[in-house]
Amino acid sequence: MVLGAALRRLYWVLSDQLGVDPRKTWRSLLGLPRYLRDLRRFRSAYRGRLDLTPCLHDWYAEAGTTSNEYFWQDLLVARMVFAARPRKHVDVGSRVDGFVAHVASFREIEVFDVRPISATIPGVVFKQADLMQNVDGSAGYCDSLSCLHALEHFGLGRYGDPVDPDGYRYGLINMVRILEPGGTLYLAVPVGRPRVAFNANRVFDPAQLVSLAQSLGLQLKDFHWHTETQGMRCMEPTASNFAHIAGLPYGLGLFVLVKSD
To answer: Which of 252, 254, 249 shows the shortest CA–CA distance to 224?
Structure first.
């Protein structure tokens, strides 16, 4: 298991950080004979201009990427926001090309992010802000708030934010300030054996995160858990379930939290 985790980490560094994907390279090499065969067949029946642009690994892919946690969290929370119909929904740091785009397709969404966005996006109001700091005039600003796969990065410097081991705490404190009493926070973070994978992300013990949220005036309403093998499913937020998750290497926890009146 240790060797498997080390290999997965090495693969992530090679593919995501260095741009060298061994799996894609291998599949491309396997696809080369098929490409040459198809090219000969097509050229024999085609007389127009022909540019060679090999796509060698797509034969091995499904019609879309539906297995990872980003796909499921973005879809699930967007559906929750649609059903809840809040007065004002604000997002902190989630994927613009995923969740934010989903929500902007049916309502306006306001985005706070430490990184800039240069594009003007229909349905999206953008404010560059570091949520580890207090945002002036934001107390009770909205009744619905999301932060999906973002809080775990706060304070690690990965996205230009200041390095601070307590950055995630300050981030959560300020998100609670933004939310009005009775409002809902949709919070998704990696869960499993608690640790910092510097400077990529933190992994949280779900019980410890819920305890922190409760100390700030949030109550857990629902919990969903995602793993590569089991997909996304609703789970009872019991002490035994949280202890089980905290002993595993990695998963995604989606916490639906309500701010006390």
So the answer is: 254
| Domain definitions of the chain by residue range | 2-60, 69-259
Per-residue pLDDT of the chain (261 residues; tens, 9 = 90+): 566 677 777 777 777 788 888 888 888 888 899 999 999 999 999 999 999 999 888 888 787 778 889 999 999 999 999 999 999 999 999 999 999 999 999 999 999 999 999 999 999 999 999 999 998 888 999 999 999 999 999 999 999 999 999 999 999 999 999 999 999 999 999 999 999 999 999 999 999 999 999 999 999 999 999 988 878 999 999 999 999 999 999 999 999 999 998
Q: How many helices (H) and strands (E) does the chain have?
A: 7, 10
Largest CA distance in the chain: 73
Contact 246/207 with Cβ under 8 angstroms? yes
43, containing H or E segment: helix 22-44
User: Which amino acid, 237?
Assistant: P
Q: Which fold has domain 69-259?
A: Rossmann fold (3.40.50)
pTM, 2 dp: 0.90
Element (H, E) at 25: helix 22-44
**Which residue is listed with tokens 């793993």?**
227
